[in-house]
Design brief:
Layout lengths: L1 H69 L6 H14 L1 H19 L2 H7 L13 H62 L3 H58 L8 E7 L4 E4 L12 E5 L13 E10 L2 E8 L11 E3 L3 E2 L2 E2 L1 E5 L12 H10 L3 E6 L5 E3 L6 E6 L9 H17 L2 E4 H8 L7 E3 L5 E3 L20
Parallel strand pairs: 9-10, 9-12, 12-13
Antiparallel strand pairs: 1-2, 1-6, 2-5, 3-4, 3-6, 4-5, 7-8, 10-11, 14-15
Helix pairs in contact: 1-2, 1-3, 2-3, 5-6
């Protein structure tokens, strides 16, 4: 019985072992199958991710090239080549698409090459991308309008002259015809008298013939005079055309005029009263409170030189004479008659145009002094066309080819607000495209003769005197005087 019980136990154990082995085999197969499927799914996902990454990189390269063509962020040829290679490698379809767009861009830009050459004029440029195309077309339209207006004025003047000449010629012809008619009447009277006095007929006939000849000569003279007037009119027409061409050339030269030349000079100065006179006045469009930097009379490159003094207009005296007060000078190198004066914010008879951008801290207190720069421009007769504010706003009507200076402050860094950085970049790019000269605000202040709220002048021995803002007793230099009082 004991042996039988042990045999049954072994059988049960064997059965259980077999069942467990079968269960383990089935479970192992199921898990292996799942692992194989997961590995395949992982490979598919990795392949898809690589394809998506390549597609994303290709589209990013395409976007950069498209932005360059549009003009948002222009790339050089050297910068475009690796992007084109990346497109060809990662997405041939996008490469084909950007090639078609590039061909269209080349065709569009080629359309305006002829216009640029025909319009001509130094300083004239055509569109460089699609974003600059509207501004170019506006410039072309404005130029055409000006040419049309000038031509219409010239044609109207020529027509008026021709009408006047024709009226004068008609009057002379009418007078000649009347004279001829009078001669004919006299001739008829002479024929009537022929029957009365044969003896006097020959003399009267000769006299009448002389009269007719004289009238014919007068008619010929009138005709010759009319021909001369026609030739004179043609000559005036040619002269008007040459004059129009000269004015056009002069306008081009004025547009390219280097403003960095002296605006005038010191006519007379008195250090004791700290007053002086300059050779600018009412006829030059000068205004009170206009400031000038002063340079030695022999200075030939004052735009880069350090000014010796600063003056401010206090009174307009005559057409070409104004009183000034000395804001700052150095008695070791005093102001002398004949010294040159200069300011970037004023040109005789015109208003100078400016633009502003960047952070401007004059006194080092970490606060913007933009308002001071703006007021200096405006009080001296300048015009602010455009401004990128400290908050990143673009204000004003925008720069044009007539904008003279872009006054730049400190450039925003990568840590600055994106809006501020973008506004600064846009106005700087616009200045480059329109050929606007850029100067730092420190250089501008030096040109203006600005030395801070307290302006001082150095005296012998190194001491400095503060120049107040009180009234000065007017003093006028003697007529014809060329020297200064010291």
């Amino acid at each position: 019985m004991a042996a039988r019980g042990e045999s049954q136990g072994l059988q049960v154990a064997l059965i259980i072992f077999v069942m467990i082995t079968v269960a383990l085999g089935v479970t192992t197969y199921i898990f292996h199958n799942s692992a194989v499927k997961l590995a395949d799914a992982k490979k598919v996902a990795e392949d898809s991710a690589r394809a998506q990454q390549a597609s994303s990189e290709a589209r990013d390269a395409q976007n950069k090239l498209l932005k360059s063509l549009i003009g948002y962020k222009v790339l050089s040829e050297a910068e475009q080549r690796p992007l084109m290679s990346e497109l060809a490698t990662k997405d041939a379809a996008l490469k084909t698409e950007i090639d078609e767009i590039k061909r269209a861009w080349d065709e569009d830009m080629a359309l305006f090459t002829g216009d640029v050459d025909a319009l001509g004029g130094e300083g004239w440029t055509g569109p460089e991308n699609w974003m600059s195309l509207p501004d170019y077309l506006i410039q072309v339209n404005q130029k055409r309008n000006l040419e049309w207006s000038a031509e219409k004025t010239r044609a109207d003047t020529e027509t008026s002259q021709k009408v006047a000449e024709k009226q004068a010629a008609d009057a002379k012809v009418a007078a000649a015809e009347k004279g001829l008619e009078d001669a004919k009447t006299g001739y008829d009277a002479s024929v009537a008298e022929y029957t009365e006095a044969r003896s006097t007929w020959t003399g009267q006939t000769a006299s009448l013939q002389d009269s007719v000849n004289a009238k014919n000569n007068e008619i010929k003279k009138v005709s010759d005079e009319a021909s001369k007037q026609v030739k004179l009119l043609e000559s005036e027409k040619n002269r008007s055309e040459l004059l129009a061409q000269g004015l056009k050339s002069e306008n081009t030269q004025l547009k390219r005029k280097d403003y960095d030349v002296p605006d005038g000079k010191i006519s007379w100065v008195d250090q004791k009263s700290r007053l002086g006179y300059i050779n600018l006045g009412l006829s030059d469009g000068l205004r009170r409170q206009q400031t000038f930097s002063v340079y030695d009379r022999d200075e030939t490159n004052h735009s880069k030189a350090v000014p010796k003094a600063a003056i401010e207009v206090t009174r307009i005296v005559e057409r070409h004479l104004a009183e000034v007060r000395i804001l700052q000078d150095d008695l070791k190198n005093p102001i002398l008659p004949g010294d040159l004066i200069f300011t970037p914010s004023w040109v005789p008879g015109r208003r100078v145009h400016f633009a502003l951008a960047g952070f401007m801290d004059i006194d080092g207190d970490k606060k913007s002094d933009r308002t001071l720069i703006r007021n200096l421009v405006r009080v001296n007769g300048g015009v602010i066309d455009a401004e990128a504010t400290d908050e990143g706003e673009l204000t004003g009507e925008g720069m044009t080819v007539h904008t003279r200076y872009l006054i730049l402050g400190d450039k925003p860094t990568e840590k600055s607000d994106a809006k501020v950085l973008q506004a600064y970049g846009r106005i700087e790019t616009d200045a480059q495209q329109k050929g606007v000269e850029t100067v730092s605000y420190q250089t501008f202040l030096g040109w203006m003769g600005y030395k801070g709220e307290v302006r001082t002048t150095q005296i012998a021995g190194g001491a400095a005197n503060e120049v107040g803002t009180g009234e000065f007793k007017p003093r006028t230099p003697a007529r014809g005087a060329t020297g200064g009082a010291y």
